[in-house]
Amino acid sequence: MKAAMQYQNKTPEEIVRQYKKRLRAKQGLLILIFLLYAIVGIRGIWWGDDGMTDVLLKLFILIVITFPINIWISWDFMSLNMILNQDCDPVTYVQVMRLLEKVHKRKRSAVAIRINEASGLMWSGQFSDALALTEPLHKYKVSANYQVSLLNIRFNCHKKMEDFEKAMRVKQEAEALVSSFTKASLQKTGQELLNVMDASLALWRGDYETFRRMEEARSAGYTAKLQKVVSAVCLADVDIACNELKNARTHLEYAIQEGGTLYVVEDARRIIIWNRLCAFVLV
Which of 134, 185, 204, 207 is the most interior residue, by most CB within 10 Å? Predict the structure, then answer.
């Protein structure tokens, strides 16, 4: 949670400026270590003090020393996801990702940033823009986790745009991808995606009992505030359909209070206004 707090009440420019400062410091440390290794290595070879075994040993030590720093750099990049997942602020998240395009020039990093940007666009309710951003990314070879993210973005955008035929095609792609996974961790991640899709489709069909059962099973493992807010809005839909209005109001008020700039907050406000209007008409 401490990582999430460092991004609150800051502009995208401030966030990226701090990120760049930390990144340059770590990159400088890496460069310094490589220079020291080169100096020591060249000196040892030049004076004949080092044989092949010594060179390989020093190379191994270099890898051991620099590996944690590279992990540290990756963690800093991944921690930016807190802006979306814990602060529930996709608007700031998208702006941060766009600024990062000028910081990370490598193709692999650029693709990761674009996928994150598409996710932010989706959660801010810009579904067509998110889809447009994912289209050119199909030609790049990305990690299995990023493939899962792309499928999730495309599925949700098509569903929200009420193009259920395309949403079902994306689900079929997801099923094919998950069936190709051999690692247990990837199979678990893929199955979680399929469960999300199945629950979403159950809600769309009006199969509220199935959705509630699936959501209650999944919600026990929620750690991100984004997940809890989205779940609350979906459960409010079910509560209203089942005439459990008190529960619905509790869920909607939580979403409005904690949902930041997520598009579901506007959905929650519209539901509350509509139900107040209906109650007034009935009276």
Answer: 134
**DSSP annotation of 119:** H
As given in the structure block, the two tokens for residue 228 are 């809890």
Hey, how many other C-beta atoms are within 10 angstroms of the C-beta on 224?
Answer: 15
Write the Ramachandran bin of 9: left for phi over 0, alpha for psi from -120 to 50, otherwise beta: left
Residues 6+ apart with CB under 8 A from 139: none
The per-residue pLDDT of the chain, averaged, comes to 86
Tell me the pLDDT tens digit for each residue of 61-106.
767 777 777 777 788 889 999 999 999 999 999 999 999 998 887 8
Query: Within 10 Å of residue 275's Cβ, how many Cβ atoms?
Result: 16
What confidence tens digit (pLDDT) does each residue in 28-62 have?
888 887 777 776 666 655 555 555 565 566 666 76
Burial class of residue 169 (count of CB atoms within 10 Å of its CB; 0-12, 13-18, 19+): middle
User: Dmax of the chain from CA atoms?
Assistant: 96
What is the spatial distance between Cα 7 and Cα 95, in angstroms, rounded to a whole number?
Answer: 13
pTM of the model: 0.84
Q: How far is CA 69 from CA 57, 58, 72, 229, in A?
A: 19, 17, 5, 35
**Residue 27 to residue 18: CA distance in whole angstroms:** 14
Helix %, strand %, coil % of the chain (to 5):
80, 0, 20
pLDDT confidence of residue 51: 53
| Contact in structure between 23 and 76 (CB atoms under 8 Å) | yes
